[in-house]
Amino acid sequence: MADQFDNNKDNDQEQKYEKFCFLCRRPESQAGKMIDLPNNIHICADCMQKSFDTMNTQMSNGNMNYSDLFNMPNVSMIDLSSIQNPGGQAKKIKKKSETPKPVINLKDIPAPHKIKATLDEYVIGQEYAKKVMSVAVYNHYKRVATDTMDDIEIEKSNMLMIGPTGCGKTYLVKMLAKLLQVPLAIADATSLTEAGYIGDDIESVVSKLLAAADNDVEKAEHGIIFIDEIDKIAKKKNTNQRDVSGEAVQQGLLKLLEGSEVEVPVGATSKNAMVPMVTVNTRNILFICGGAFPDLENIIKERLNKQASIGFYADLKDKYDNDPHVLEKVTVDDLRAFGMIPEFIGRLPIIFTLNGLTEDMLVKILKEPKNAILKQYQKLLALDEVKLEFEDGALHAIARKAMERHTGARALRAILEEYMLDIMYEIPKDDNIGEVVITEGYIEGSGGPKILMRGQELPALEG
Ligand SMILES: Nc1ncnc2c1ncn2[C@@H]1O[C@H](COP(=O)(O)OP(=O)(O)OP(=O)(O)O)[C@@H](O)[C@H]1O
Ligand SMILES: [Mg+2]
Questions:
Q1: Beta bridge mates, 289
Q2: Distance (Å, rounded) from C-alpha 245 to C-alpha 264?
Q3: 359-462: which CATH architecture?
Q4: Out of 163-167, 322-326, 433-437, which region has the weakest mean confidence (pLDDT)?
Q5: What is the pTM of this model?
């Protein structure tokens, strides 16, 4: 009956997406054939029938006339302007294809050493972390690809990475997803709250992944969700109030981590009447949690010192105070003392730490990665046909300054930006400048950069 209303715009593209009932939000695969209305609105037969029934009874009561129709609460609540164009493609969902073809092919998964080799091109140091992640990711996708192998179920290798700020946690995950060409959602644990409170629902992490996968449910079900700042949802100590953004979020994450069917809104982070819902199974989604876990070191030290001062092997009490590798000795008990609930840690079987960056690593980060900051500046100046060089001493001076800021590799860019400002300002003034050498003196404030004219060499100028 509604064929006459059918949108003529229907095309192949349209066919790939599932229709949703505008009222009950069930997809066509559940609710049966939809009745199409203009503006891409679809209504399932059940809802249509219900609407007619309601109208009939009200009308036949005699206490309603036709104009009252438009005063019915449900009718006036629908904001017509919002349905004119319900977001086009963005709010649609790809139909599940009838014969599910494997999204990931076993043969296509790069071997762990290849994954690590690619990570090496971008991420300096963190050898252990890179190795663990490469193996974990490789195993995970093997598990996904051989879904039929049911006898021996390989368990999911969700990960927890712990490391000081700016040491490459988020960066590592971003590189990994780029390399694997799987959808990646980076969510922030700080914005999550228990359902019903102000903030994002816990399931919103899955909707983010769905968005990253172009609303393709199948693709999303093989993606990676990185939950950053996971340490910020530690159980709050000494509080009598309900801990809606801490412990409750950890509890809410449990079922996602383990694998369950979740109903998520499409194209929005919160559930409400106007957005379609879709079911996503998180069984094959790889979860990586990361956090800086400040103070965790103290918890570990306290435990180690206690152990060390008991009995036969009694040791110096402050033996671990200056140990740079103390974080590596983390145990599940330490994490629990930090405020993570045991069920939560239990679902992250792979726990590893990243090292704080040393001066030498910072120097390497400046110049070695494929997209190193130095290379970026060199390229910028090369466009002016000016060569940019850094003395080794200058790089170490920059690294030392970065170490003082205690923000990891993030400080490098800020510091370099400061020193390069003058240079980027002055160079284009004079066409004759052919080369700039950043000296240690310039960084330490005791001299200027060396400026070389085209074809000749001049002594250092004031910076
Ligand atoms: N090991 C590394 N190799 C190369 N670059 C790095 C490394 N560590 C950090 N960086 C650089 O520093 C930037 C910040 O790092 P990142 O965002 O990964 O920090 P983080 O560990 O997630 O810190 P936070 O806990 O504060 O979120 C990255 O974008 C990257 O450019
Ligand atoms: Mg981060």
A1: 160, 227
A2: 20
A3: Orthogonal Bundle (1.10)
A4: 322-326
A5: 0.72
**Alpha carbon 281 to chain centroid distance?**
18
CA atoms within 13 A on the CB side of 268: 14
Nearest ligand, CA of residue 232? 1
Tokens matching residue 137: 């990711």
- Strand ordering across the sheet containing 286-291: 184-188, 224-228, 286-291, 159-162, 350-353
Q: What is the DSSP string of 90-121?
A: GG-EEPPPSS---SS-GGGSPPHHHHHHHHHH
- Condensed to tens digits (0 to 9), the pLDDT of residues 203-221 reads 888 988 999 888 889 888 8
- Cβ–ligand 1 distance for 407 under 6 Å, the answer no
Give the residue, by CA position, lying nearest to ligand 1 atom 8.
Answer: 168
Residue nearest to atom 11 of ligand 1 (CA): 409
Q: Give me ligand 1 centre to Cα 181, in Å.
A: 21
Q: Of ligand 1's atoms, which has the minimum distance to the CA of residue 174?
A: 18
The secondary element (H helix, E strand) that includes residue 131 is helix 127-145
Go through 324-342 and write b for each residue having 16 or more CB atoms within 10 A of its CB, e for each that does not. eebbeebeeebbbbbbbbe
Cα-to-chain-centroid distance, residue 140: 18
* Closest by Cα among 251, 142, 262 to 209: 262
Task: Tokens 């020193």: give the residue.
Answer: 419
Cβ count near 150 (within 10 Å): 7
Pick from 154, 107, 106, 163: which is nearest to 324 by CA?
A: 163
- Give CA–CA dist 134/130, Å, rounded: 6
Tokens for 91?
């709010």
Residue 5 predicted with pLDDT over 60: no
The larger pLDDT score, comparing residue 7 to residue 420, is at 420
The model's pLDDT over 86-141, given as tens digits with 9 standing for 90+, comes to 444 445 566 555 545 555 566 777 899 999 999 999 999 999 999 999 998 888 77
Separation of alpha carbons 251 and 245, rounded Å: 10
What CATH number is given for 106-353 in this structure? 3.40.50.300
Q: For ligand 1, what atom is nearest to the CA of residue 172?
A: 18
Phi first, then psi: what are they for 262, rounded to 5°? -120, 140
Q: State the ligand closest to the CA atom of 164.
A: 1
190 close to ligand 1 (CB < 6 Angstrom):
no
Q: Show the tokens assigned to 451.
A: 């400026």
DSSP string, 162-228: E--TTSSHHHHHHHHHHHHT--EEEEEGGGB--TTSSSB-TTHHHHHHHHHTTT-HHHHTT-EEEEE
Closest CA to 116 of 158, 170, 172: 172
